[in-house]
Amino acid sequence: MPTEPLYPAYLPTRPDGYAPALDVPYFDADEPGRRADPLKPTLHKAGANLTNITPRVGTEIKGVQLSQLSPAGLDEVALLAAERGVLVFRDQDFADVGFDKQREIVKHYGPLHKHPTMGYPAGTGPEFHVVYADETAGNLRTLLGPHTAYDLWHVDQTFTPNVPSTTFFWVLEIPASGGGDTAFTSLTAAFEALSPAFRQLLGGLSLFHTSASVGEVARVGMERALKEAVNTSHPLVIKHPVTGKPSLWVNPTIARRIEGFLPEESENLLKFLHNHIASLDFSCRAKWEKGTVVIWDQRTVAHSAIPDFADGERRHVVRMIPYGTKPEPAFPDLFLASREARE
Fold first, then answer.
1. How far from each other are the two terminal CA atoms of the chain, in whole angstroms?
2. Could you give the 3-state DSSP secondary structure of residue 39?
């Protein structure tokens, strides 16, 4: 028998309908992680407990309340997210602090992305991205249609010059019988695993990114998605703006063409890279519990939903995405030489 949601004020609405993706022009952006104390005294305070989920990616944090952090403490969160990829904060009151406080905290990291098609809570705006499934709304399987598996590795909204940075995702309700976790994979570790010769090849390449992603095509149709598409190019291997480490910045749902390659060349190389980043060697799984807030750096990790929960069960989470800086190539000289050769 259907039940009422625990957070009805956060049900998704879209009174204005689907909108075209916003073509956000380049702007000078801040990187709060650069300001942070490298010792992270707030996150390592007495009573805090930080445990690495795997050696390569992910940290679970208990004993730190995000809603009570000072600006300096929020800077430390950005630095640790840049270093570890994804942070899983437990026992948080974030879901209950209200729209204004949630918006204020995430805006610390940059201007907020306004999603063109995802629903948002009534009285707010498209900077809130509600991910909702129940017996009537369906889930990711419903959106994408029949498949043997539903891995959908991606980085969010990378089709503008400035790209997403320290992203917040908090749970309101989890499926009654379990499941619905989110998987993350380290794009930094994925790059480090490649041979030096292969890394050099990739370091000179760039990818074409488009808002006509797999998800948007499923929502609005191919014709409209292509007509309204916002497009840009980014290096395939980027330098993280905080850590300086190279990141294999592939994005299977949004960046599906290597510039300067013939279609067959691009398709085959990207197929290898997409399979490579999905390796369990570089990945972890964030298990949702009541009071969980997951924060990740979109320049360091890709993620995928895991829609393994039972049909009709409610899963209710909310995401907010701040913009960071424009990605820079990890190897500028190599990248410039390759671009000049293509031109």
1. 62
2. coil
Sign of dihedral through CA atoms 21, 22, 27, 31? negative
CA 30 to the chain's CA centroid: 18
Closest of 257, 261, 273 to residue 341, by C-alpha: 261
pLDDT digits (tens, 9 = 90+) for 188-197: 999 999 999 9
- State how far the alpha carbon of 226 is from the alpha carbons of 121, 205, 210, in Å: 28, 24, 9
Instruction: Provide DSSP, 201-267.
Output: HHHT-EEEEES--HHHHHHH-HHHHHHT--EEEEESEEE-TTT--EEE--BTTTEEEETTS-HHHHH
Residue type for 21, please? Answer: A
> For the chain, what is the largest distance between any 2 Cα atoms, rounded to a whole number of angstroms?
63
Instruction: Spell out the long-range contacts of 60-64 with Cβ–Cβ below 8 A and sequence spacing 24 or more.
Output: 60/87, 60/88, 60/90, 61/87, 61/88, 61/89, 61/90, 62/89, 62/90, 62/91, 64/89
Residues in contact with 237: Cβ distance below 8 Å, sequence separation at least 6, in sequence order: 191, 199, 202, 203, 205, 246, 247, 248, 249, 329, 330, 331
| The predicted structure's pLDDT at residue 338 | 86
Residue 129: its H or E element = strand 129-133
Question: What would the pLDDT profile of 51-97 be if each residue is shown by its tens digit?
Answer: 999 999 999 999 999 999 999 999 999 999 999 999 999 999 999 99
Q: Which residues are within 8 A (CB) of 120 and not within 5 positions of it... i.e. 6 or more apart?
A: 12, 13, 14, 126, 127, 128, 129, 130
Asked if residue 34 lies in contact with residue 165, where contact means CB atoms within 8 angstroms, the answer is no
Q: CA angle, 149 as apex, 144 and 152 as ends, to 5°? A: 60
228 burial level (CB within 10 Å; 0-12, 13-18, 19+): middle
What's the full length of the chain, in residues? 343
CA dist 331 and 248 (Å) reads 12
| Residue pLDDT, tens place only, 26-44 | 999 999 999 999 999 999 9
pLDDT in tens, 148-173: 888 889 999 999 999 999 999 999 99
Closest to 122 measured CA to CA, from 5, 11, 6: 11
